[in-house]
Amino acid sequence: MDLLDGHLIPAVDGVAFGLLLFVVAAGLSLAFGTAGVLNLSHGTLYAIGAYTGAELSDGTWGGLALGLAAGTAAACLAGAGLSAATAPLARRGHLAQALLTFGLALIGGDLLIQVFGADELPVRVPEALDSSVMLLGHRYPAYRLCFIVMAVLLAAFGTWVLTRTRMGAAVRAAADDPQMLAATGRNPRAVHTGVLAAAGALAGAAGVLGAPIIGPGPGTSENVLMLSLVVVVLGGLRSLWATFFAAIAVGEVQTLGVALAPDLAPYLLFAAMAAVLVLRSRFAEPTAGHGPEDPGPDPVARLRSRLAGRVPGSRVPSRIGRLPGGAAWWRAAPLLVLLVVLISLPALLDAYSISLAGSALALGLLAVSVTILTGYAGLPTLGQTAPFAVGAYATANLAEAGWTVGPVQLALSALAAAVFAAVVGPAVIRARGTTVLMITLAVGELTGAVVNQLKSVTGGADGLVGFPATRALWGGEEMLEESELYTYALVVAVVAVSVTLLVLRSPAGKLLTGTRGAEARMRASGHPVGRYLLVAHICAGALAGVGGSLMVTVQQYLAPADVGFEIAAFALLAVVIGGTTSVIGALLGAGLIVATRDWVAGSWPGHGPLLLGVLFVATVYLLPRGLAGLRGGAGSGPPPGLPAVEDRSPSAPAQNPAGKVSP
């Protein structure tokens, strides 16, 4: 009884917090499960409602009602606008949607700060609710009890609309069979817009009502989005009741769990999310392939013919690319030009710009590792910052222990990252499609939780700084000048990229590409596809570890933000900018991102997120095949990671990509 009394208030807080997450997650689930839109700007829709409600709150019932109406309407309009923004991506799948909506979230977050300020806004509730009531012998805020009632009513109303009205029937029909819905005279596009508008309205209403609980401020949208994704994954997309209980469980972990087990609570949510996704994918049959099936000749036969140096259907060996001055030299030209430009940078740039170029090389290696997984293995990832972080913290701790020789740091960091990738790899390679994105996201967030909690190794939120500088070789001096650090980074990057290109263009790389394009046929031919994917995941992890080591050497400090979710999204964007199968394009994309984030934004202080958001949006719309697609070369085909890949795990919703809604 004493235990119940001691934790009653956190338990009730958990119910209130869980109901808030349920309302938000219901909108996210509606957008993804019904409209087929993976909306990473859903937290921004919540923030729109929260900021609007807080701005209009004046401590009266009228102010609360006005804020609720205005905040809900504003988020509803934003949701409808999201429908128009994602319509051109109807046939490009969830990865393109994720990048677009993340960019919109960056733009929206910057605009909200410009309008409402960077400080957390105070929220004034009516005097009757700004008090405490007795709850089983304990005083408890009246507003939170009122919010529990309002959230239950809102959830009940939404459930009634979805299950008992003609509008709800049209929404369910749009998810299950949009063609049949169109045959009844209803416009699936209008239903699609209405669903996203309703999802925005739910998020906005939750933002207004939840502002006194999760106030509008920096980080609010990302925190709400991540927790809502956990709820959706745990509850699935098929049952509102499952989502409801998952939200309550998440709310209790966030409040009661922190009180009972503060050391474990940060890991529980994303560990549970990853476990659920992995278990569901294990009970699913392997998908037919990562990308569209080629109905033409057997791809395995074509692959063997190419490896033998012959053109399929011909007895004449293929010499294309082997003749001096032939295709091989033409394909190598961009790499040679890029190398010349990189070598000449120290003579052209100031010290600060040179340091940015070194950081771009480190991010470029991370982007190349994402290229291996997304473009060649067909496993789109949002968690490659996890092995990147392992490599980075390994180098920082090695330096603190006196191991300052660069090659030693690189080798041990790559080994640590490879071991990490080998441990988590089996959970990743079994899944396909959107489930891969979610699992890798969970792995990345779990790694972030470890970074913040394991202060003896990572320094926690303060990061690591002050460790000895790296020496390029045994017996050499510490590298302190920006030009020295850049030259070291360039040499490491050239070696790493050269090895990567050799492997990807070897028979092993071609077999990996074969698993992406025709997995079922590769399996039928006796190829150990799982082994290929696991090896690719380990090698990509090692390369990311090298990138993390390089970043620490160049920056001479390490903070949690350097290995967070935002960096993972930047790496994925760099891959899309360059073309998902273009290694050089990934490097160029990384350079463009660093230049936008740190150099261009320097001339417009405080608007870095806005510029990056514009870069996200422009890339998705203007470069559907990346820079490589502009010249029609390698990597110019349909981006392997972008088409909607059917997720056949039991956790997946009835597949309704936006392409089925659009005409």
UniProtKB/TrEMBL annotation:
GO MF assignments:
branched-chain amino acid transmembrane transporter activity
Q: Any keyword Membrane?
A: yes
The UniProt record lists the keyword Glycoprotein: no
* Entry keyword set: Cell membrane, Membrane, Transmembrane, Transmembrane helix
Pfam family name, one: BPD_transp_2
Where are the membrane-spanning stretches? 12-40, 60-83, 95-116, 142-162, 195-214, 226-250, 257-279, 328-349, 356-379, 410-429, 436-454, 485-504, 532-555, 567-594, 606-623
InterPro entries, alphabetized: ABC_transp_permease (IPR001851), LivM-like (IPR043428)
**Localisation:** Cell membrane
An annotated GO cellular component = plasma membrane
Q: Where is this region: Disordered?
A: 634-663
The way this protein sits in the membrane is described as:
Multi-pass membrane protein
PANTHER family to which the protein is assigned, alphabetical: ABC TRANSPORTER ATP-BINDING PROTEIN, HIGH-AFFINITY BRANCHED-CHAIN AMINO ACID TRANSPORT SYSTEM PERMEASE
Q: What is the protein name given in its UniProt record?
A: Branched-chain amino acid ABC transporter permease protein
Whose protein is this, by species? Streptomyces griseus subsp. griseus (strain JCM 4626 / CBS 651.72 / NBRC 13350 / KCC S-0626 / ISP 5235)
